[in-house]
Amino acid sequence: MATRSAMAMSLLSRVLLAVTAVAAAAAAAGDDRGKIGICHGRVGANLPSPEAAAALLRQNGVTRARLFLPDPAVLAAFASAGIDLVVGVPNENLTFLASSGPDGAARWLQSTILAHAPAERVRYLAAGNEVLYSNPFYAASLVPAMRNLHAALAAMGLDGKTKVSSAHATSVLAASYPPSAGAFDAASLPVLRPMLRFLADTGAPFMVNAYPFISHASDPANVELAYALFGGAAAAVRDGEVEYTNLFDATVDAVAAAMEKEGFGGVPVAVTETGWPTAGHPAATPENAAAYNAEVVGRAARGVGTPRRPGVPVEVYLFDLYDEDGKPGEEFERHFGIFRADGSKAYDINFA
Fold first, then answer.
1. What Pfam families does UniProt report for this protein, alphabetically (predicted)?
2. Does the predicted model carry a pTM greater than 0.85?
């Protein structure tokens, strides 16, 4: 039986190899993941026009956005403004894309996305959103659809410009505490294992939607507000040789640890949604939203990485550009907007 010290050294070696692999891939790709992006959902009444939304992002120095649907008007306006995009592939399109082969995927890409936005503006295709959590009916179609989309892009000579991934809820993890114990839900592994192989082969990130606010709101007794908010007064979580002072880092590293357990430690993590609401819950205030989002922006800009992957920037997309009054669920779901409809900020924040 191996000694504890030998086992610890083996684990450390695997972590260091994973960090080296991610850093090397980032360097080879001319990494610029430290730029911040903002999600633009449109589930609301009286939202500003796509042109106004795109102009607002540019006025505030933001040149990346995530679109949940390939709306032609939004694609055209954002691409014309020079904004690089994560474009959502709707869950309900996955069955067709999985069964139609690369040719069908190419036709879908041309008519749905590339007819409205040039390929150089499409950074990622996010095939489905939280499929394994909210729409398991489409789970079997997810990886085949991703493969067909990638094959279509490759046939067009665009696979170096546009990567294909899929955004997941954090519930894809069966274990996340401490972060080094991160492990995927066993029921999801038949989908996740071939997906991780695909991501590793194509250089695309594993996408996760991470909301420390919701973790705190759901379990305030065990997730203290300061820990969710990057607060200096938060009690640190010791995990072997590293220490965690916030839930954002802990979540990203739990995902990284889960991928390492499956043999894919070189795949980067991108946080495709995170944010803090301004109303609808006692902890949902403009002051807390400003504190949380400013820290996310600052850490991304500095490229500090996480305790498990220090110095490796995490690509992040803040949710949301505007409040969306048509969203279902708890009241706070409708109050994530960073900007008001008139273009003024809901709280003081800069994105430089």
1. Glyco_hydro_17
2. yes
